[in-house]
User: Which sequence fits this backbone?
């Protein structure tokens, strides 16, 4: 959180030596990178702690607690910066661009300052404290790596794969959503930004519904529903793209449904890694899954324009891209169906018990092997 706070403040005061524009952008890039490291740290500490905390309340409601405590709050928070930016544009009327982006960046430091004193009083979950008491803050060793490669390669591929594919989707439309709407509807970027803001309010309905369903019908079913709906909406946008283009409001409505169904994937991809792995390396594995997601976002952002041009450019390229995204969603269904585990109504301490038993067995095997080798050497 401190890194986010510092990165936001440095971004707001970015400046190049002797007024250099290149220097300004370099300082801004480094400052945003610093804030990004902090954001990544939020994933690997906040999500596991929330999941582990459910053991002390009611593990049968773990999905709902994670959904509301993490995903709903995150998506509500995503609305605020967009609203602040649009309000600042309305105030300054593009008369002072620097004031708009500097205030926008500085605004990101305010929540960190407000939460700082609360977090000083926070406690780690009981599961984490027990793990710390049992084995301390030890780094992963050969036993852990053997355990992960033997028992958790399938869940890891599933969690990382779903996160990669989902961020391919969400980064594309977060980055290029305004351009897509502007190209289809003919509206200016400012108007489309307001449309996207209104869509975000509907977007919050997704994580609320998903958080309420994930403990009742299970993680895999919610994931399959979310991916299936993305297949349907992407196929519709591609199949009747040119018809929708003649009725802009119809495209906006379909586009809004596309946003509403995304969180049905978002909640499980945060939740499943947090409950799949033992406490000893839960945060590490979730961090790796999150990193895989960011790789998907980078790949999607870099591939958008080249793919669009390769697929025909202009409206034709944009239309054909929808079929590419349909294929991405179909891959999500395959990963979920064949690889994703289901941990509905299962206690997290089971994972720690299995891990402790496995580690004890490996120690016994190593001890027996050493004793046999010593016996052979004496002979």
Assistant:
């Amino acid at each position: 959180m401190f890194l986010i706070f510092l990165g936001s403040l440095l971004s707001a005061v970015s400046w190049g030596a002797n007024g250099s524009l290149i220097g300004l952008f370099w300082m801004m890039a480094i400052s945003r990178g610093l804030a990004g490291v902090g954001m990544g740290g939020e994933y690997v500490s906040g999500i596991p702690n929330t999941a582990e905390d459910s053991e002390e309340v009611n593990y049968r409601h773990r999905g709902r607690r994670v959904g509301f405590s993490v995903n709903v709050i995150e998506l509500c928070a995503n609305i605020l910066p967009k609203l602040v930016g649009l309000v600042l544009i309305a105030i300054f009327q593009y008369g002072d661009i620097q004031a708009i982006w500097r205030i926008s960046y500085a605004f990101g430091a305010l929540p960190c300052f407000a939460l700082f004193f609360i977090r000083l009083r926070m406690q780690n979950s009981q599961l984490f404290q027990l793990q710390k008491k049992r084995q301390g803050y030890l780094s992963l060793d050969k036993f852990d790596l053997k355990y992960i490669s033997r028992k958790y390669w399938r869940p890891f591929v599933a969690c990382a794969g779903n996160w990669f594919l989902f961020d391919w989707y969400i980064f594309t439309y977060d980055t290029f959503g305004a351009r897509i709407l502007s190209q289809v509807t003919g509206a200016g970027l400012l108007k489309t930004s307001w449309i996207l803001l209104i869509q975000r309010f509907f977007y919050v309905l997704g994580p609320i519904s998903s958080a309420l369903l994930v403990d009742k019908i299970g993680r895999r079913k919610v994931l399959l529903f979310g991916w299936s709906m993305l297949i349907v909406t992407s196929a519709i946008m591609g199949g009747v793209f040119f018809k929708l283009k003649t009725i802009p409001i119809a495209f906006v409505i379909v586009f809004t449904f596309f946003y509403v169904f995304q969180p049905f994937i978002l909640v499980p991809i945060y939740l499943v890694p947090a409950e799949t792995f033992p406490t000893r390396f839960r945060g590490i594995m979730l961090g790796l899954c999150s990193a895989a997601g960011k790789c998907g976002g980078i790949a999607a952002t870099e591939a958008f324009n080249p793919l669009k041009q390769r697929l025909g450019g202009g409206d034709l390229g944009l239309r054909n891209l929808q079929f590419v995204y349909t294929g991405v969603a179909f891959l999500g269904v395959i990963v979920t169906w064949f690889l994703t585990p289901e941990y509905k109504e299962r206690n997290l301490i089971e994972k720690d018990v299995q891990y402790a038993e496995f580690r004890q067995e490996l120690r016994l095997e190593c001890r027996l092997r050493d004793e046999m080798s010593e016996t052979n050497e004496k002979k």
User: Anything to note?
Assistant: The mean pLDDT is 84. DSSP finds 17 helices and no strands in the chain. Residues 89 and 100 are 7 Å apart (CA to CA). The first helix runs from residue 2 to 12.
